[in-house]
Amino acid sequence: MEKKDHILYDKSGNPSKEPAWIFRTYAGHTNAKESNELFRKNLSKGQTGLSIAFDLPTQCGYSSDHSIARPEIGKVGVPINTLEDFRILFDQIPIEEMNTSMTINGTSMWLLSLYVALAEERGEDVSKLQGTTQNDIIKEYLARGTYIFPPEHSIRVIVDMYEYCLKKIPKWNPSNICSYHLQEAGATPVQELAFALATAMAILDAIKERNCFTHEEFEQCVGRISFFVNAGIRFIEEMCKMRSFTEMWDEITAKQYDVKSEKFRRFRYGVQVNSLGLTEEQPENNAWRILIEALGVTLSKDARCRALQLPAWNEALSLPRPWDQQWSLRLQQVLAYETDLLEYPDLFEGSKVVESKVKELIENANKEIQKIKEMGGAIRAIDNGYMKSQLVKSQAERLAKINNNELVIVGKNKWKEGIPSPLTNDPDGGIFKVDPKSAEQTLKVLAEVKAKRDPKRAAESLARLEEDAKNGKNLMYASIECAKALVSTGEWADVLRKVFGEYRPATGVEGQKLNLETEKVAIVRSKVEKFLKDTGARPKIVVGKPGLDGHSNGAEMIAVSAKHAGFDVIYSGIRLTPEDIVQSAVEENANVIGVSILSGSHIELAEQIFQELKHYKAEIPVVFGGIIPASDFETLKKIGVKAIFTPKDYDLMDVMEKIIDILSKAPVAA
Amino acid sequence: MKFRPEELKELIRDAAEGEKFPLAKLITELEKPNSFEFRKLLFDTLEKSDFSGNSSLTVGLTGTPGAGKSSLLGEFSTEFLKRFPEKKMAVVAVDPSSHISGGSFLGDRTRLSLPTREKRIYFRSQPSQLELGGVNPYTYHVIRLLRCFFDFVFVETVGIGQNEIEVSKLADLSFLVMVPLGGDQIQFMKSGIMEVPDAFILNKCDEEALAKASYHTLTHTLEFLRDLSPGGSVPPVFMTSVKTKRGISDLLEYIVSEKPGDKREEETLLQIRKWVKNEYGNFGTRILSEIRFPKNANYETCETLAETEIGKRFKDGSAIRTE
Question: Which residues pair with B201 in a beta bridge?
Fold first, then answer.
């Protein structure tokens, strides 16, 4: 029988259909009990893997009873303190049958240790566990912020996990290489390729330096590397980027690391499509954006994703509801099962257009990789601030283009008039709100565990962890013992903080310029000059990111814009307490404090900020920006916040004008 | 003028007790142009209240971007607060300004982890109003004020070249912060900056071999320079690392054991000369050299006298005849 080019054949020569990719939903919040219920519902709906989001205290290595954790418990993910929380989280879920993806980085080792401890406690065969710990610490320094320790110690922890998994859990992927978050922070496709692959090479170099693997074992480690990639609205370019990744990774692994097995050289990736481009204005358009973005990673068979995770249409407004997540899941199911997408060989094989585009992306990415290599590799390029400043620069350029209308965003800077969206007419305003009482449940469980555990066993396991950390031993074993001894997340992290220290990276804003010279810029600058003339000093703004959220894009763009407008800007990066921010403002006698919050903790943090201002008897105006639902505006105004900016306030100079107007009206405190 | 004398006294009292916001307000007034009237009232009031600042040590820190001055100061302050509970320190960090919009990033806080609500430490950024690091016109007055309330005042600037000399003239003790890289030594030798500091700090000494090699290169260079100027001594070189906490204690001991210099009067005259040159040019400078200032006069007294004298010469036309 003659074979046809448009038919996909299996190994026996029969027409076939490729299996669908793994459908994932990024889920988990409130507390372990409610997350468990959500997981079981999603599994029954046809979801085939678990993708777990953890709250910020868990990601940053704090137990829920720490003061810095209090406003953040359960806000953007599930809080996990001890093994008891994992027992609750995975209750009635057969973890040995699951493919579990954990979005966890700084505390990856701890969460994997809890998972292993749970499996052993249940009498499961640990070697059968499947899944991934995200564990890409390098992108945390650049784009997401949930690092804890300095780079060299973080890498050591990652290599410990590779060593442990190779021996004990061969099907577990100890780390992803994430370019998803880089694109969310403004990375271009070339930067996404270069930075992700440079990161992968840094991990592989560290594994090689460990010098405890045979070459065959090393090849298995390479085969365990999987990537977590982004895909934006330019879906043809994104598809080409995926093909570029495939080709480059194959070449890197073959030539640089001498991997002989073709299977281990295959570029394996999961993807979450772009959220940065989702709008708060006309949010219903986001549903189409998400679909188009999904095409970028599904159209090409040779570069198709292994797992796909779609954001919800309303993510620019707040946390998605279960219904919104279901809607995203249905999109995947329709695409995979109702269309003929999976019935064809690669649609783009032999395309001159695609080949040319791929070639260009590869050339440019290789140039960028070479530049990073000359600096000494990805870790060095992080320490010297290069990679971070490149991302801030790309994001500034993107925002300038949106402001200049060079980049069309439907509903945002073009076709702005329209009928209000009925999707946000529900009583809850189309968003999810965490029940404040859910945190009490978490704290109650933690208190009970601490009261009932064997304190001697807990102390001994922590002492062993500290000793192993100092002596360079593989920390997985001590961590698993800590898990079984019912040690808490914060206790585990504090021991390692003590040994490794805590890290503060470059912010990336120094030296940035904004290519934005519109009429509005001139207007704002003239207002700033008037302020200078009237008061004798330039307006001074402290830009602060309180709490544990590390998404610093918005704060960085405001800092760069304020400088561009003529403000003196004080910006100290992420992981500040409200006390830190207010102290900066007080010592500098700032004219305004700009606070950036994306974690849903804006009300609690606002209260803390104003309490601190009261302590200093300082009446400095405060403005807020971030993901803040309109239904909370009134509450924030009552607390004292002067203005609130959300993603719809994308016009940077509009924001600066509103701020300088506030300052010009206020009686200027001397 | 914004404050009544009673209000000013209250601010001074609060600042002396370590309250940050009153102190911040006083500094803001000093940072404004045409601050003469305020300064006169402020420093007169301070003198009457026995806040002379004469026992305060001023320490200058300068070096290239990336030398790690801020992190070093952060680690230093932690050690300082722990070991000297009765002492207070302040930091003034001078940042480059943008010449296009005039705005600037005051970024040194990024690398510092300062304790909150601690009354014994105060940190203040200010733009340099110059393209490269240097000291702006009002930094001197801010330092004068901080000396009244703090045992140690650290002035941190960034840059390379002529501007660094300004810091050393304001400081009782000045440091050049370098990192273990050969290229920097060569640059610094050419710029002539090597002869300015009282001491050197080789920071980021995390890698032993590189640090030692750089240390020896630097000390040999300094010995060479000493031989070129008879009577000089080789300045100390401290090897530090925030990462490994190396050398912080030694640096702390060295700084704490230093005494403030007796060159306040000389410093005042130097600053007056600088101001006169900016305001009146060579004409003013010539007249200034003929003025005899009262002994131990403060800056505002000297400024008043200089302005009066220059105004007088200008009015009676004698200066024109001289030209």
Answer: B177, B238
